[in-house]
Design goal:
This protein is of the alpha/beta class. Helix content is 47%, strand content 16%. Helix 2 crosses helix 3 and helix 5 packs antiparallel against helix 7.
Length: 268
């Protein structure tokens, strides 16, 4: 579906599973689309959950708004989408940038977040060097398109042994990246450079808001140590390390990822 949610923003999304099921919204990372969550959507809807998977503005089938897209903009878009769907509160999960948007949802719209699922993500604000890298990458994508960048980082998005050993998964990830509009990706990179520190958000997370932290054992972007630091911020959180996976364990090892997710949701 492609609803207009306000402020000139139109989002494509899928809303699957029983309408009376507990709602779960899953937020993709950069530079991907909602389709990365297909294995999770199948597992969760089979288990009776309502699963909402949007394409963020500028990604997938959602139109681009050029310029800068702050994580706050993405979070507000998703809160508006939940309003449109009549969903008061949901389990909010995301991977990488999507995990940061999930934390931003908790910051800006705390009452909407029933629980958090944070996969392969980090809480600290961007460093000055990191800001420069993201802004430079935004300009590079506009100049070169997505293919050179995709080919350069595919063996960091997935563990290198999964790029060769799981050609279908690698092709799916590369295909999402190739298809991303460079203007949408650039807008998000500029916005992500300005992200705040989410450590206070996590440190203040009450026990009645459960938190699952997932990480691929061989993630080079947000290593296990990063996940452990998130886990330390939230004493009541659950940490799951997925073996034989890199930055996208939900794609690389969907059965293990889904098992951790379903066990977590069953405990809520």
């Amino acid at each position: 579906m492609n609803p207009q949610i306000g402020n000139g923003v139109t989002l494509f999304f899928e809303d699957l599973g029983p309408r009376d099921g507990a709602p779960v919204i899953l937020i993709h990372g950069h530079p991907f689309s909602h389709s990365m969550w297909a294995p999770q959507t199948m597992a969760l809807t089979t288990a009776g959950y309502r699963v909402i998977t949007p394409d963020l503005r500028g990604y997938g089938q959602s139109p681009v708004l050029p310029g800068i897209a702050l994580l706050a903009d993405f979070a507000d878009d998703l809160a508006d989408l939940l309003d449109r769907l009549g969903v008061e509160q949901a389990v909010v999960g995301g991977v990488s940038m999507g995990g940061q948007i999930a934390m931003e949802m908790r910051l800006r719209h705390p009452g909407r977040v029933r629980a958090l699922v944070l996969s392969d993500t980090s809480a600290p604000p961007e460093t000055e060097d990191g800001k420069a890298l993201r802004r430079n990458l935004a300009e590079r994508l506009l100049a070169e398109g997505m293919k050179p960048y995709t080919d350069e980082v595919i063996d960091k998005m997935l563990a290198p042994y999964n790029v060769t050993g799981m050609p279908e998964a690698a092709a799916k990830v590369a295909g999402m990246m190739y298809a991303t509009d460079p203007e949408g990706a650039a807008a998000a990179l500029r916005g992500r450079a300005e992200r705040p520190d989410y450590a206070p958000v996590l440190a203040a997370l009450p026990a009645e808001v459960p938190c699952l932290i997932v990480v691929g054992r061989d993630d080079v972007y947000t290593p296990v140590a990063e996940a452990e630091s998130l886990h330390a911020l939230v004493p009541h959180s659950v940490l799951a390390v997925v073996e034989r996976a890199g930055h996208l364990p939900g794609v690389e090892q969907p059965e293990a990822f889904n098992r951790a997710l379903l066990e977590f949701l069953a405990g809520i």
